[in-house]
Amino acid sequence: MAPRWKGKDAKSKKEAEAEALKEPMSKIISQLQSSLVQSNTCGFLSDNCVHLTVQAEQLDLLDKACFGRPVRIVEKDMYWFQLTVEEAFYLCYSLKCLKIKINVGADTGPLNDEELWHYFRSKKETFPYFYKAYSHLRMKNWVVRSGAQYGVDLIVYRHHPARVHSEYGVLVLSHDKDGDLNGRLRVWSDVHCTTRLLGGVAKTLLVLYVNKNGNNDESLLCLTNYTVEERTISRWSPEQCRERSI
Amino acid sequence: MAPRWKGKDAKSKKEAEAEALKEPMSKIISQLQSSLVQSNTCGFLSDNCVHLTVQAEQLDLLDKACFGRPVRIVEKDMYWFQLTVEEAFYLCYSLKCLKIKINVGADTGPLNDEELWHYFRSKKETFPYFYKAYSHLRMKNWVVRSGAQYGVDLIVYRHHPARVHSEYGVLVLSHDKDGDLNGRLRVWSDVHCTTRLLGGVAKTLLVLYVNKNGNNDESLLCLTNYTVEERTISRWSPEQCRERSI
Fold it and tell me: Which residues form the tRNA intron endonuclease N-terminal domain (chains A, B) (predicted)?
């Protein structure tokens, strides 16, 4: 399926595509990275997310780069912003442009990567392989958002959701330490269900299998040994392959 | 959701409903039962189904009662017909109107219920609780067909599919002897996916949980101890409950 750019007519769709090409996601993310580093931005842990206060410029860049969501205005030109645990860890650990403290008034310095890793793991059992999947897609400049609305783990956009419809619905699978496959696609009816639903909203099912390669220890180090296998699953109609003469 | 009778306009939908009321499914099934008993109909085992040859009258009744599907014409006024294992066992064991031999030319008599049960079990691991679910719905005069097209196990109609759209997509769940829940709805994303897909085609998700009540032996006797718990699962929109004043 080709990307479906947003617009009322062919011309405005072309314009959305041209604008996206002119301002690629990699460039936006670099700008966000520089801005957060310069202002020495520091977030703090909330229960299952990370909060930070940012200025109008960063609010704009976070929105353009599709990280998190604004919560409310704190004071003039200061905005309260909420990141998912994967987004926060990506900005801290992979992009090195965000620091995170244990709470808003903490006198102690920011947590190091290993401490954050353990905190997020403790809050969300699936964090290690969900983070691997998230960062795997982000590093390839895909925009990644929650897929709850479509009954999948993530949805993936070629550029900002205001410019283009998402192309993939993603399920993240892995084996736990007992060898059980977590969650989905264990039976045929689930494969049917997922591909049919996503097909109906013009998305393709992308399965990311995170292979832990035998690393069942709990440290951040094991993340570097994880590998990702990618598969797309589509419906196939027998008519596609029938010879015209039959 | 109200039943959606088929028709081009309101008038023909009303007619479809009136016809269905005039000729209830219980009556059609009684006619099929009498006809098959009178002609001493005998099918034979195929790999994962049962085949039988029937005359035009029974072909018509099988179609009206929504059992199986015609395969081809054998000779003038004789039709080759195919039943699923659940349909065949329902006609044999519950309605006592079909006999089944081991193969088409067998000199031996028909198999008894226990022999059939073991044969179907050996061909389809899920047969015991799928049969329980199938017969549970059929005995309440629902028409039951495969739900593969919608990524569920079964779909359920109030009357013949020519007259009415199906109302429910059914998933059949049970615990196997190790205590594992077979298949579906183990994670939230699957619940989302299934309800969203079925909602999109105006069906409700019906979950039939077959409780084996500790019966893990393999004989037909255990079937009588199985019980069925029924749940429907629907999407809920928060707007439904919001007070108008807010």
Answer: 43-103
Catalytic residue among B203, B209, B212, B226: B203
Range A163-179 average pLDDT: 88
**Residue A66 in this model has a pLDDT that exceeds 70:** yes
- Tens of pLDDT, residue by residue over A137-148, are 999 999 999 999
What ipTM describes this predicted complex?
0.72
Rounded distance between C-alpha atoms, residue B110 and residue B99, angstroms: 6
Residue A13 has pLDDT above 80, yes or no: yes
* Closest partner CB to B196 (pick from A151, A171, A191): A151
Find the chain A residues whose C-beta atoms sit closer than 8 A to any C-beta of B. Answer: 147-153, 171, 182-184, 186-197, 200
Contact at CB, B184 and A196, closer than 8 angstroms: no
For the entire predicted model, the pTM comes to 0.82
CB contact under 8 A, A184 and B187: yes
| Domains of chain B and any CATH numbers | 24-124 (3.40.1170.20), 125-246 (3.40.1350.10)
